[in-house]
Design brief:
heterodimer, A: 572 residues, mainly alpha, two-stranded antiparallel sheet, two-stranded antiparallel ribbon, 4 strands, globular, B: 194 residues, 2 domains, three-stranded antiparallel sheet, 6 helices, 5 strands, 47% helix, 8% strand
């Protein structure tokens, strides 16, 4: 790595660390119904109007079941809306290119994909989606699914922090306040910053241009336009990741400069990172929040640096053709190079974003395994907005349970007893994801429709399928794009993986919150440390062990086998 | 009844948020863009003296003629409606076959001996298929060919390349790169067709 790369990485982590406190405090106020924020002057009237129009009683709190039902219904209505918008986009406005309706199974897949914060894309946006559909059908979910994730994290945190009550907040108030006070202002700032770098925002018809070398082009020369900047900002801020274009953040209109690239990576980690501070503040143990943050940073550094070094090795098959340093530039942009491409890949899969600035499918086998491994750890290294925090807290509960038992102490966490019920629910939430990933991948590998979609042969084909189901079950949305998953069975299976991976996990998560919130706080001398080096080590080890044990066998058959065979000179 | 109430509430909240998040928000960004960044928000378009749009500074174009610097290989030959990469695996024989063809073509076109190394961006397809940049080394290797085709002085062409080279911002962000479209536009200006 060059010195400049180290500086960029250090800057990236430092900016996150500096923003943690102010943003964490802001989030704390947003999630407090009576909290005062700096945006009250603008959004307070709108908030009150929203309560009035929707007849929301903001003083009335909900138990975990009511909270869950509210979120499920709200998301269901949104997904239904998106489905019909995509199916009827040819008769709706803002469609200068007269794009026809989306096929039913693709629209079904897309509606679930955006409703679950996944943003898996089985379509080519510039050809198949109108401006209206982008704004109303898709960008809408970028906000609401992000708000849903943060609301869930808030409910979970309240479950841990509160004592001897039944309620964990009001989902309608949470959704409204998160959207107005957190997502909307930050998106606006993000959109302006990205626009300054060259991300367009207009409603023009696609531009037809006269190329310089007219003989080098066949057919019409077209550059799509659209309201890109507004969507780009929330795509990253809400860890959504659905590109306005097929090439996603590799497209020069979505990510024009190295500076915009840096901003995009920051936007992805911004909220998940600050949520750890919010958590520390809520449980009045700032050191605990920072310890969780540090665990995330350390895991992130290990994985992102490995990704870079593995990719930097180059492709041995380039040797006979006299290519400098054997650099694998396939599927990467000149302006980003190897370092910023691999860093972005690690960021987008550590968080549950799924935006890409390079094509992961063309990475070398082992460096391509890092994004896959990142996702299979459960996207808790910062993770998705909200989902990263509650996912991480499930691991915290598991590790205090495991290590508490090892040293013969009653497992407790922040003064609450961790009993059989909580552990069952935490394991259930993790198992759902493991079963979805491994079960559905196996199913696809054993069926002809599964194998028909492969873009590459050999072990790489297995990795493509595994990546698709990992990405969808974990609600990431990035892809090994060689897999053309547009057939009906794929569209439906992937949609189910996304739906179960999101909404079946939130039920056990809220159930834990509902159980913990009723407990009273007990004071024990024999509590396990929740901060410091020992805690960071134990938490990191638990995450790594669970992830590695669950996925190492299949990774051996995919990327590791491919790497070993490549080393022996075998092509597929 | 409670469920029904929640459903009605969901529909109302969805409609209201639609108005704000899908209506007011993108239009606010649009208006701010028009005021603050009119060129960028309009797509960074290049318009010639006759009023024709010649492309966007950010979007790469395909070049074939020896008179121009050539962009990187693109899976869709710079079709704006088909952005994306090849998604071929590094172990794919199809992929290595492509690399071989591109390397041979690049060497022949620019007269590069087989002992000399060529930069990876000259033979690898980009992620977007619309990459507007090439590496500095790639541009310099093409300079003799362009100079010959334009009957220009090699030194002058090389200087033009260096003038159009983008250095990493603050020496930290990004890579040394040359915007091919911008460079070719300058070429046409400096060395117009006879």
């Amino acid at each position: 790595m060059r010195a400049s790369d180290w500086i960029e990485l250090a800057l990236f982590i430092s900016i996150l660390a500096v923003l943690n406190k102010p943003l964490g405090i802001h989030i704390y106020r947003v999630l407090d119904t009576e909290g005062k924020t700096i945006f009250d002057a603008i959004f307070k009237p709108l908030e009150n109007l929203t309560y009035k129009i929707c007849s929301i009683d903001k003083s009335k709190e909900q138990n975990w079941i009511e909270y869950a039902i509210g979120l499920l219904l709200f998301n269901f209505v949104g997904m239904l809306l998106t489905y019909f918008v995509l199916r009827m986009q040819h008769v709706l406005p803002l469609n200068p290119e007269h794009i026809g309706p989306m096929a039913p199974h693709i629209a079904f897949n897309t509606a679930i994909s955006f409703g679950t914060n996944t943003n898996w894309q089985s379509y080519i946006p510039e050809k198949e989606v109108s401006y209206f559909s982008q704004m109303v059908g898709l960008a809408f979910h970028n906000f609401t699914s992000a708000a849903t994730g943060i609301a869930l994290a808030a409910a979970f945190v309240r479950g841990i922090v509160r004592t001897e009550v039944k309620t964990i907040g009001n989902c309608w108030v949470d959704l409204t306040r998160i959207t107005y006070y957190l997502l909307l202002p930050l998106s606006l700032v993000g959109a302006l910053l990205l626009m300054s770098q060259g991300v367009p925002q207009n409603f023009h018809a696609y531009i037809r241009y006269l190329p310089l070398d007219s003989k080098a082009h066949e057919g019409a020369c077209i550059i799509p336009q659209g309201p890109i900047a507004s969507q780009e900002a929330i795509k990253l801020l809400g860890t959504n990741g659905g590109g306005f274009f097929n090439a996603n953040s590799a497209h020069p209109y979505e990510n024009p400069t190295p500076l915009s690239n840096f901003m995009e990576m920051l936007l992805i980690f911004l909220i998940p990172s600050a949520l750890t501070y919010y958590f520390g503040l809520s449980c009045k143990k700032l050191r605990h929040g920072w310890s969780i943050w540090l665990t995330m940073v350390l895991l992130f550094l290990v994985l992102s640096l490995s990704c870079y070094w593995l990719e930097h090795a180059g492709n041995p098959f380039f040797k006979p053709y006299g290519i400098e340093q054997l650099t694998n530039m396939e599927g990467k942009e000149t302006r980003f190079g190897i370092f910023e491409s691999t860093l972005f890949a690690a960021v987008t899969t550590a968080a549950s974003c799924g935006a890409v600035n390079s094509m992961h499918d063309s990475f070398l086998p082992l460096s391509g395994m890092i994004p896959l491994f990142n996702m299979s750890l459960g996207e808790i290294i910062f993770g998705g907005v909200g989902s990263g925090l509650y996912g991480m807290l499930l691991f915290v509960i598991l590790s205090v349970f495991l290590f508490g038992l090892m040293i013969g102490r009653t497992p407790g966490y922040l003064g609450k007893r961790i009993g059989a019920y909580e552990i069952k629910m935490a394991v259930l939430a993790l198992m759902i994801q493991y079963i979805l990933i491994l079960g559905m991948s196996s199913m696809a590998i054993y069926s002809s429709w599964g194998r028909a979609a492969l873009g590459n042969n050999g072990p790489h084909g297995l990795t493509e399928i595994l990546y698709a189901f990992t990405s969808t079950s974990q609600n990431n949305g990035s892809a090994f794009g060689g897999l053309s998953a547009t057939s009906i069975p794929y569209a439906i299976c992937l949609a189910l993986a996304m739906y179960f991976g999101r909404f079946f996990v939130i039920i056990p998560v809220l159930a834990i919150a509902g159980s913990l919130v009723c407990q009273k706080r007990y004071i024990s001398q024999m509590v396990f440390p929740t901060s410091g080096a020992l805690f960071v080590f134990i938490l990191g080890a638990t995450i790594f062990l669970l992830g590695a044990l669950s996925f190492f066998p299949v990774l051996t058959l995919g990327p590791i086998l491919e790497h070993l065979m490549m080393a022996r000179g075998k092509m597929f | 009844m409670k469920l029904f109430h929640s459903l009605v509430l969901s529909v109302k909240l969805t409609l209201l948020l639609l108005l704000i998040l899908s209506g007011i928000y993108p239009f606010t960004v649009y208006i701010l863009g028009k005021l603050l960044f009119p060129y960028q928000s309009g797509g960074s378009l290049i318009i010639d003296s006759k009023g024709h749009v010649r492309g966007s500074l950010l979007i790469g174009q395909n070049f074939d003629s020896p008179r121009y610097f050539h962009s990187r290989p693109s899976v869709s030959t710079y079709d704006g409606l088909n952005s994306g990469g090849s998604n071929l695996a590094p172990s794919s024989s199809d992929f290595i076959e492509r690399i071989k063809k591109r390397a041979t073509h690049y060497r022949k076109e620019n007269g590069i001996a087989s002992l000399n190394l060529i930069p990876a961006d000259a033979v690898c397809a980009s992620a977007s298929g619309l990459d507007p940049h090439i590496s500095l080394k790639n541009a310099l290797l093409q300079a003799p060919r362009v100079a010959k085709a334009r009957k220009a002085d090699l030194k002058a062409i090389e200087n033009l390349i260096l003038k159009n080279t983008q250095n990493p911002l603050a020496n930290i962000f990004g890579e040394k790169s040359v915007n091919v479209l911008k460079l070719n536009l300058e070429l046409d200006k400096e060395y117009p067709l006879p």
